[in-house]
C-alpha cells in the first residue's frame, strides 16, 4: 500500500509539471504573437502618418483638413528652393491642398523646420475669367 501512495504522488507531480509546462508554452506563444502584432502595427504606413500628423498638430495650429504626408528619402532630389535648402533625409512634408500650406517637419528632432504658404500659378484662362 505504501508503494501505491508513492506512485500516486509521482503521477500527481508529473501531471502538475506537464500542466505547468503547457501554461508556460502558451504564455510564451501569446507574448510572441503580441510582439509580432505590435511590430506590424508600428510598421504600417498609415500608423506612421497618423503619428506624424498628431506630433505636428501638438506643435502648431494646422488647417482642419487631412494633409498628404510625404517622407524625404533623398533631399538632394528636391527641386523647391526652400524645401531643398532646409530638408534632410527622413524629414516629413505635410501638404494641405485646400489651404495651400506646406509644413516641413523633422521627426528625429520633433520640430517643425519650416511652414510655407504656396500659391498656385494662374493660367491665362483663369486671368481672363477674373477680368470679365
Account of the 3D structure:
This protein is α+β, with helices and mostly antiparallel strands. It has 4 helices and 4 strands. It has helices at residues 2-43, 45-59, 81-86, 124-131; strands at 68-71, 92-96, 101-106, 111-117. The chain has a 4-stranded antiparallel sheet, with helices on one face. Strand 2 and strand 3 (101-106) form a beta hairpin. The radius of gyration is 30 Å and the shape is rod-shaped. It starts with a helix and ends with a helix.
Number of strands: 4
- Uncertain runs: 126-132
- Tell me the Rg in angstroms: 30 Å
Q: What general outline do the C-alpha atoms trace? A: rod-shaped
Assign a percent range to the helix content. 40-55%
- What proportion strand? 15-25%
Order of helices and strands: HHEHEEEH
What class, by secondary structure content?
A: alpha+beta
Major β-sheet, in short? 4 strands, antiparallel
The tally of helices reads 4
Q: In what order do the strands lie side by side in the largest sheet?
A: 1-2-3-4
The average pLDDT score comes to 84
Based on the structure, what is the oligomeric state of the protein chains? Answer: single chain
**Alpha-carbon distance between the two ends:** 113 Å
